Amino acid sequence: MNTVGGMIMHKLGYLGPQGTFSHTAALCWARDHWYTPVCCASLDAIFEQVADGRLAAGLVPVENSLGGPVGETLDLLSTVQSIYITGELMLPVRQHLLARPGVALSAIEKVYSHPQALAQCRKFIKNNMPGATVVETVSTAAAALTVAGSEEPWAAVGSESAAHAYGLEILVENSHDNPDNVTRFLMLGKERAFTGSPAKTSLVLSVKDRPGALYRILREFALRQVNLTRIESRPAGRKLGDYIFFIDLAGGEDEPKVADALRSVKENTLWLKILGCYEAAADNKAPDAATTCGLDDLAFLRREIDLVDSEILQLLAMRQSVVDRVAAVKKGRRLVIDHDREREIICRARESARQNNLDPEMVENIYRLILRGSVHRQEQLLAALR
User: Are the beta carbons of 19 and 166 closer than 8 angstroms?
Assistant: First the structure.
């Protein structure tokens, strides 16, 4: 956690990069629960860092109303220990057509985005840009970055947060074909959540290999009038035809009818794991990313900058520690500056800057200061060791 302005900022991990709908969901949750979003490279990294305490919480996508379940999230929920679902968020998916300022709709030659986002806007693209070439990217954020870094009349399909993150303008709002597209996100933590109302309980189980095994489990809930809001099967990873089942049900695990059903269900399973009991997200509480996520909230954005600055300082401290070790290796000899090595570092930094839509000159200047400071640091340490 970090302290900013006297307040404790808990880190909330989300699947990056910035500008994705996971980023939008993290901004929504963070604004209401006093978290600071932290970009993670993978879903596995989110689970790992929540488990070892580097993150206070994680926010992961679990299903989309059009695209279906997120298999990797389900697999991680079933295998990672000491992680619980502590909440959920329903995010309406609002796809927008993004372009650099001044680019007209009629001039667009190419449209970039993730295949799923392009599919969600297929009719819009066909009706409004019939001559444009559609280009698939690894994410909506990658599409926005590509468009932002080009001088060509290109556009990207993506979120409002992608427009803010990469300096694009929303050329056409709500360019998706289906207005009811929603992604469900799960909040993860190391401690079980306080059960709110209305409550929801999530579990995963493996059934015994015998006729009617799944029916016996579902029957226990039906007899007690426990409503199952979702049931999903996933391969167990052992042999073909072996499955585990994920179940979401309405009600808390401590409610008498739910507790009684779970006791009976366990008799018909090989194993059963309660993934979490948490407050269900009401449909009328679903946040609209375009109006409630605080993308233009100056205080919120400044807190994000403060956290980034803190991470930069920690990385500089790590780099200095390595420099100190280099100096120890050079003990007993004169400091030799490797100019080829410095040129290699500067070249790599400039190329990375271009790929990330940063000013290469600015990045080079920063790295030259870092390299100069590293040389000075080694000179001091070597002088002290003589």
Answer: yes
